[in-house]
Amino acid sequence: MAKHQSNSRVQISFDLSLRGRQIGDINVKWSDNRQPLGYYPVPIICLSNGNGPTILLTAGVHGDEFEGPVALMRLVQKLALDEINGRIIILPALNAAAVTASSRVSPVDQLNLNRAFPGDADGSPTQMIAHFVETVLLPECDAVIDLHTGGKASIFAPCVLAQVDPKSPQGTANLALAEAFAAPYLWVVGEKNDNRSLSAAAARQQVSMIAAELGGGGGCDPTMANFTEMAVMRCLNHLGIRADSSGDHVAEMECIKLTETFVSPAVGLFDRHFYIGDKVIAGQFAGWLHFINEPERPSLELKFNTSGIILAHGNRGMVERGDLIANIANLCSVEGIN
Predict the structure, then answer these.
(1) What is the tens place of the pLDDT at every residue in 173-209?
(2) Domain 257-331, architecture per CATH
């Protein structure tokens, strides 16, 4: 792809155009009490060989989501240059300060990186990183995979998120990449996609993009990390960046659309009675909300408002009013999503 001019203050410690295996930092210059004269480093790895496409692999956009960073660090150790035809840019901890702190948002400026795009070249560190990714890295790429989980606060059924309009070349490419990832669910993102997300940034730059939600809980599930590693490998094979199809398989992927975010109506101890992937119906018992600090107060029986599949649920015992209880999705078709 053609180089794109950017006014970013952020710099990479090596030249992305060079072939070979390079490991370094994205240097985010910022002056505060912790780092008055240096920079906040974001690790970056570039593996380049041959003339194939460029893919950007990101994880750690939220710092309490660890299966993605683990999977990408495994790939850094395993991928050899002689098996690559193209360029793989790996950002295993894009929000590095947040990953170090196990925090969803950056401890430097308290911002959510996935709500910071298109960013600001003259903004705070999170805004500078978002601007750098959108104006410098994305124009270099043919495809992007962004790996997420529910973090400490929630747990998701394994799913891929994508804009999959079959009438557009980008939408078709997104669908093919999602199929190669082979998660159980394809969460179709339409008009309600947040325009401050990395997915929206890729759409603006007309780069094929999928994101993934892969469990959660704030730790690192080995089964989910293994799945994520193999899923990314399948996508590299699909794009022709690797030629090893030994781990590929055809998966039955159900297309879903989010229909309700069910939240807590009050402060209390939530006694959950369902799991991710469960099929529920409107009026079905969801759990008790116990008022543990007011034991004389009767517990509140929560029931589902709509029918569907439990795509995600909250992971907190004590909940506040407005906290996630469950995301409910329904099956849909790819056609006519937007």
Answers:
(1) 999 999 999 999 999 987 667 899 999 999 999 999 9
(2) Beta Barrel (2.40)
